[in-house]
């Protein structure tokens, strides 16, 4: 013990007289370990604490405070009481000691065992003895922290202090300027308000001391380590100001005053604060200020050029209206909501009668914001506005006017989340149901496409709400839509009509089944109409088919189109047939949500499609007549139909699908196909003797088996893989061997790891190596294709063998014949494949496989590039730009520094494809350029500007876009290039291609604005 | 209304914007030269912002395609613009913005003529004379306050 005492005395001595700061840490470690107690420390400090030298006393208190900061949690109540008494007393001491005293108090107030009454006495002493604003920043922060801790632990006691506490706080915070301390002070104020402290007669004082910061204008110093943002300050101040309705009488005039400000952020902040008031205030606080607030909001919304001000104004209005809607009516007072809305209506309504003047839109938006605030508000506003709009519509004859009116109407028809009728309430529009439908139908027959487009939108909105369209109206609407699909060729209108049909068909399927589908079917199969009409019909069929009942009617029509295309009866072109398949695929996507649709595809559509394709292939082989269904483009379009449908199949039908497909392709089992008139021994996976024909149907096998869920077991998979491997290595038809390779890869990707998989991989890798090494072999392309797809399959699932395979691909970059294909192969490897090996097909795709691949291989690529011969370098650059352009932005940004020299090299490479893909990968990076780019600007500019006169138009366009993007870099970095860029860009202004001139104009305009007043 | 500056014409007529120029097959063809035509010039100036309103010159019908004339071979451009009201004090500024936009966007072989549609402004001649005087245009652009307003008219809105 005695020994410890002398140690402690030594430590104290060294700290106090020796000024060795590190001894404080040692002392607190000692206290924490139980080596000394606080009492011993105080005793040891005795001499210094009672010294007549303020500096020595200060040192002593400092040591004690620092130890307390570490050990406050282990103190007993008695100790705390004594220490508090000591510290409170010290507050009266010399000013050099005060900082340490406050530190000590801050530590003590964090104790969980504060004796009763201590909080009050601490605060009283602080408020009495200290003038907070004459302290330094850190000490002021101590005071706020003391308040915060005491409010946490001793709320009752503080409330007992009553208004004195508020007064003390107001006095200590008055004049605070540092944002860090302000955040703390705002927190104290928010606690005061939200936890129900009695503000007494100091409401106005507290408001004054807080509101003097409103609206906050704070721009943090550059590279601010504390990371306080304007946003943070604004939000915490707003919570204080809008926290209590007692502030209303002061805050609302302040908001009205600040709305007159010329500074946009002040306006936005004021409006947002007003919107926040709407949540806490009631009618009582608002009443007096409503006319003033309304006129300010109206002025801001109708005059502003900024969308932020406009939307803030609209939400403020909406918040006011919903606050008024909540207020409870007295029997003798007037309805405040009604009064306020009639003010709004009086100011806005007449503008709606002038559909070609500017104020029509701001007024409409204000009315819509008010109507959208509550059900009651929407009733009042609609009752006044809808009849007026309908009357205006009928009185006006110009299409442009009618269109504006209808667009305004559209905003009133769609209810918002707040104004939606509750259960049992009718839509506010029920009274106008007939006249609304009448106006929409008349607009649908107008000659202006714009008006018709708006009408379809209103129609969808009406259809979405129950009770607004009677059965006859729905039927009339469907007839109008059918007519528009058949007759109107404006692309915007057709897509609006199709969209509207889709949304209505989801709610009223019967009308579409009985009226629209038969009419479209007749038109498509009549053989009379032209391709554009048929295309619209097909698109419309796809968009209405979201429910199983509609799908069962619409898909047979599409199948019939394919069948008649196959027989050649209606003269469908290959493009049309492919478009039909795209529509089928869109329908198949609904199978994900509806099992019934999935089953329908499994039972009817897929067998039919397989049967048709098989018929077509056999017929071509036998008769030489070529059906569109043998075309690669059509087959490639059928693949997604089947794979989308198969991917959605549930377990049992999925297994059946797998079994059927495998037995068809391996054994020629055609029993499940419709119209069974096929020869018995078809061998679909044989490559011999034909150019495509049957073998290309392997893509359909891929569509069926590669997209099934991973849990589904594929029967006879080993035999299947062997046959696919054979086909992909020996077939000479590009489409067939590529599809076979993809199918092989799709199966390998899903196969569980284990010996069986290893055996397959070993066999195939050996075969690929043999083929590739034999440079005179005619089947190196096939082997390369298989290698590429197997690499992709393994890379996606992080299989250990994938590195060996991708290394082989890297080696092929310097191959004289396959180099360029290998470079493009990296594009395949890195991008998402649409028909196989994607997540939609349930493939095993690990997250971030691209980053991983890049991280593991970028050095190989750079080394390969550096050691390659000059004429082969372009392959490496092409591979690099494929890899980089598929990486996520974030990774691109971090990796760019290392790659920049290579990318710059790629820009000066003569290959236009390399230039183009490098430019397209640079452009997004330039929008948010990393630091490393700054040092390379000179090189970048000279290469980009040179490319603006490239012979290839796409390169010129892409390079101009990059130059444009560079104008957004920080001004000081690019300003030195301004004159040079402007001069260089004058040349493409006279380019012979308009598209190039357009980019040059856009880029040059931005560069002119750079560094110019009013520019940027 | 209190606060803010009052607008000369607070509720002007609004006209519909024309759509984007449709792409044709020849636009994509490397070998075909596309001459600079009226629509292209109109596209350059239609999106210029009005100095007062958050609207473009096209929406206020200050510029119209039929009032744009270009001759690519002779390198001549002539643009007429129509102020919204005959006493519009912004006419010179609008004319200057159009002129500056064309100067920045056209090859320097072009002679650019910007003037007020005859009979639509009280001090038409004075404005036209100012706009035609090269030195005065250059001097105006040396004035940083004027340049600031012109640049604001020419910048693409982001807010």
From TrEMBL, chain A:
UniProt keywords, alphabetically: Cytoplasm, Cytoskeleton, DNA damage, DNA repair, Nucleus, Repeat
Main location (coarse class): cytoplasm
Any GO CC annotation of this UniProt entry: MMXD complex
Organism: Cyprinus carpio carpio
Identification of the protein by name: MMS19 nucleotide excision repair protein
Family: Belongs to the MET18/MMS19 family.
Subunit structure, as described in the record: Component of the CIA complex.
Matching InterPro entries: ARM-like, ARM-type_fold, MMS19, MMS19_C, MMS19_N
GO biological process assignments: DNA repair; iron-sulfur cluster assembly; protein maturation
Domain MMS19 C-terminal: 538-966
Biological classification of the source: Eukaryota, Metazoa, Chordata, Craniata, Vertebrata
Compartment(s) of residence: Cytoplasm, Cytoskeleton, Spindle; Nucleus
Role, per record: Key component of the cytosolic iron-sulfur protein assembly (CIA) complex, a multiprotein complex that mediates the incorporation of iron-sulfur cluster into apoproteins specifically involved in DNA metabolism and genomic integrity. In the CIA complex, MMS19 acts as an adapter between early-acting CIA components and a subset of cellular target iron-sulfur proteins.
Domain named MMS19 N-terminal: residues: 42-302
UniProtKB/TrEMBL annotation, chain B:
Organism: Cyprinus carpio carpio
Protein origin, superkingdom: Eukaryota
Keyword Repeat among UniProt keywords: no
Lineage: Eukaryota, Metazoa, Chordata, Craniata, Vertebrata
Alphabetized InterPro entries for the sequence: FSCA_dom_sf, MIP18, MIP18-like
Protein name: Cytosolic iron-sulfur assembly component 2B
Family: Belongs to the MIP18 family.
GO cellular component, one term: cytosolic [4Fe-4S] assembly targeting complex
One GO BP: protein maturation
Pfam families: FeS_assembly_P
